């Protein structure tokens, strides 16, 4: 979920309410279908009246000549966001047993003219007034810049499926702080209560669609809980739906004055519950720092306002430091947010930040690392978008040390400098649903890496995520979408989409709702070229590759655990031991430490010769800046298999072609500090 500010003519002060809101970032009986019993993709009975689909032709099935599934993947959507934030922030429902008129109607307070549409005013500027009527006229909504109205009506999702999409990640989303401050609500602000409801309603939506097709399991909307299920669904030509979670305080892991409000038991119970609900991917932090990780900042006046919200929610402002690598968080900026700042306690001011300090000091906490490893144990995929670069770097270190591929960046909130590390792990990347020009340009920037790692690409629509969507390029723009057009696979014809008396045209309306995803992809083809669309059409295969590899991951056997170890020296301490064996005892609370000089080594005897491909090193603050990993079969003749001159501490993973070795030596050449070399734990692996 990504919040953006929309341009408008009259600017109003940013309020605390706007700050917290901007943080993120149907009983009509069915009637028989004329195609019943012949065209499997058409329902036996569809409610009448209802939205039109605007697509003809059979959806493609099966795999290509290489045995790969085909199709687009939306890695980030919020079908049930209308149930979040107290239930009155996103107006309208994705389906209703009472029919389309009940599903696509505005919130009560928006009548008669939108004067009380507070969130609409904040996100879209102006006076917030709009025609609240949805069905059948849809005069003012849905629209590409109306962030408060349902964009995921089931028939619009159906059109995206018919246009070639085969995987959809439905992120269950909410924010307790936003709910608590928004004046209109009709239910509790408890985050887990909302997550449970959204999961249930996603299954209810599956049942609703199944009934149109004649019974359980017959519809095109299929919730899946493992990658094999997903592949089967896609091969049948249907839409595989995966549940994810994007919320600011998962498992109740809020922090107040840097004190965590959760513990490891809460994390285990929360992960188990989410897994049982069918959740297979999730974010650990979003917008506000929490007890698990620090966040990637928002910029300018919005960033200032969110920083005020950070203080009001947690008792602390963001803290920055100089970045240690090319990756950086978004600059907070110095723009004022007067109305928000007025809500701070007397004498408290938003801190100023150095221009050259763009990284959040807060990374992955001890509890956050416990949650990451808990997700690995459950074979879940972790979303790194919205994590600070310090937190993301630690996550990637952990995953690399375990060769775990389950990392996702689903909507352009990850620093692009992480791209190769994500692909190197076997992870998956999708881009936010930008306009066709911007989307194509960003796709081009990372194309070489997709070719290097032979992976497809995805998009994250973030619909219902109050982020804003592609504006119209205009009927007179160069190379506009012409209707009707062929789907990417060539098997379907896609015409303009009509719901009620309103017909949408991407050229003049922009991406107003989910049904216009195929039109947007056609616009990308015309603006960015067929190559971009071809990469997107491989997205389903690559996403399922990442998921399947995560499910199949097995923790490697650490050949060094409990092995005999020796060292060039060991620091003397009357209260504790820093002996060499402390680095291979399986306990990350103990460590080996050398004397305070260079040219030090730690040697591990594996007991017998094995193939060695990977060595992991968990450094204490006294780390090696320049060091080598050396191996030997006899303990006398040594071969260097990996080295660095740019070590920065933390968790390092040395990978190299498999070599036979009985002895492994870490040879320190240049210290990163004035102390010696100190390792909590060394791991040696054959895989």
From TrEMBL:
Record's signal peptide: 1-35
Residues covered by region (Disordered): 565-584
Highest taxon in the source lineage: Bacteria
InterPro entries from the UniProt entry: FA58C (IPR000421), Galactose-bd-like_sf (IPR008979), Metal_Hydrolase (IPR032466)
Gene3D superfamilies, sorted: Galactose-binding domain-like (2.60.120.260), Metal-dependent hydrolases (3.20.20.140)
Keywords recorded for this protein, A-Z: Signal
Keyword Signal included in the entry's annotation: yes
Coiled-coil residue windows: none
Domain F5/8 type C: 552-687
Protein name listed in UniProt: Discoidin domain-containing protein
UniProt source species: Streptomyces liliifuscus
């Amino acid at each position: 979920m990504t919040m953006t500010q929309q341009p408008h003519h009259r600017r109003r002060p940013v309020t605390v309410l706007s700050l917290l809101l901007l943080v993120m970032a149907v009983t009509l009986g069915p009637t028989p279908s004329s195609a019943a019993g012949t065209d499997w993709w058409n329902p036996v009975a569809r409610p009448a009246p209802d939205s039109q689909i605007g697509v003809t032709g059979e959806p493609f099935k099966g795999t290509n000549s290489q045995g790969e599934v085909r199709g687009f993947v939306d890695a980030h959507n919020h079908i049930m966001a209308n149930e979040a934030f107290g239930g009155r922030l996103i107006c309208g429902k994705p389906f209703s047993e009472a029919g389309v008129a009940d599903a696509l109607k505005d919130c009560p307070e928006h009548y008669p003219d939108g004067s009380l549409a507070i969130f609409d005013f904040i996100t879209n500027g102006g006076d917030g007034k709009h025609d609240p009527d949805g069905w059948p006229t849809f005069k003012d909504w849905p629209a590409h810049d109306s962030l408060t109205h349902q964009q995921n009506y089931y028939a619009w999702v159906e059109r995206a499926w018919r246009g070639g999409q085969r995987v959809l990640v439905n992120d269950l989303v909410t924010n307790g702080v936003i709910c608590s401050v928004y004046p209109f609500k009709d239910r509790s602000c408890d985050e887990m209560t909302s997550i449970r409801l959204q999961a249930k309603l996603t299954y209810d939506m599956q049942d609703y669609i199944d009934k149109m097709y004649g019974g359980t399991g017959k519809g095109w909307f299929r919730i899946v809980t493992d990658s094999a299920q997903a592949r089967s669904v896609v091969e049948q030509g249907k839409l595989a739906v995966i549940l994810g979670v994007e919320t600011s305080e998962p498992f109740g892991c809020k922090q107040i004055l840097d004190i965590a409000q959760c513990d490891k038991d809460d994390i285990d119970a929360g992960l188990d519950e989410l897994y049982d609900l069918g959740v297979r991917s999730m974010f650990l932090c979003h917008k506000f720092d929490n007890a698990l990780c620090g966040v990637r900042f928002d910029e300018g006046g919005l960033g200032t306002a969110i920083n005020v919200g950070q203080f009001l929610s947690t008792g602390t402002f963001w803290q920055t430091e100089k970045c240690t690598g090319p990756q950086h968080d978004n600059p907070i900026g110095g723009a004022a947010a007067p109305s928000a700042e007025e809500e701070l306690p007397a004498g408290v001011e938003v801190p100023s930040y150095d221009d050259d300090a763009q990284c959040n000091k807060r990374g992955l906490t001890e509890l956050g690392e416990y949650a990451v490893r808990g997700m690995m144990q459950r074979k879940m995929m972790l979303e790194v978008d919205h994590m600070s670069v310090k937190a993301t770097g630690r996550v990637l270190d952990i995953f690399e040390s375990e060769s775990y591929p389950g990392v996702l960046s689903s909507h352009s909130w990850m620093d692009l400098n992480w791209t190769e590390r994500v692909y190197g792990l076997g992870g998956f990347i999708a881009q936010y649903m930008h306009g066709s020009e911007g989307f194509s340009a960003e796709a081009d920037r990372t194309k070489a890496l997709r070719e290097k790692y032979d992976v497809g690409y995805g998009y994250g629509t973030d619909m219902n995520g109050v982020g804003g969507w592609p504006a119209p390029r205009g009927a007179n723009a160069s190379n506009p979408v012409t209707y009707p057009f062929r789907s990417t696979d060539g098997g379907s014809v896609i015409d303009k989409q009509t719901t009620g008396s309103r017909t949408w045209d991407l050229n003049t309306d922009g991406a107003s709702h989910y049904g216009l995803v195929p039109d947007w992809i056609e616009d990308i083809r015309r603006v960015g070229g067929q190559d971009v669309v071809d990469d997107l059409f491989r997205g389903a295969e690559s996403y399922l590759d990442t998921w399947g590899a995560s499910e199949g991951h097995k923790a490697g056997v650490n050949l060094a655990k409990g092995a005999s170890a020796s060292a060039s020296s060991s620091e003397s301490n009357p209260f504790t031991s820093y002996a060499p064996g402390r680095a291979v005892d399986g306990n990350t609370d103990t460590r080996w430490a050398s004397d305070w000089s260079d040219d030090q080594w730690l040697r591990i005897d594996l007991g017998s010769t094995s193939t060695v491909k990977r060595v992991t090193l968990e450094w204490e603050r006294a780390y090696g800046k320049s060091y080598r990993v050396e191996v030997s079969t006899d303990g006398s003749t040594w071969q260097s298999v990996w080295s660095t001159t740019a070590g920065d501490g933390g968790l390092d993973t040395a990978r190299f072609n498999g070599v036979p070795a009985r002895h492994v030596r870490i040879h320190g050449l240049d210290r990163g500090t004035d102390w010696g070399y100190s390792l909590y734990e060394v791991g040696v692996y054959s895989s």
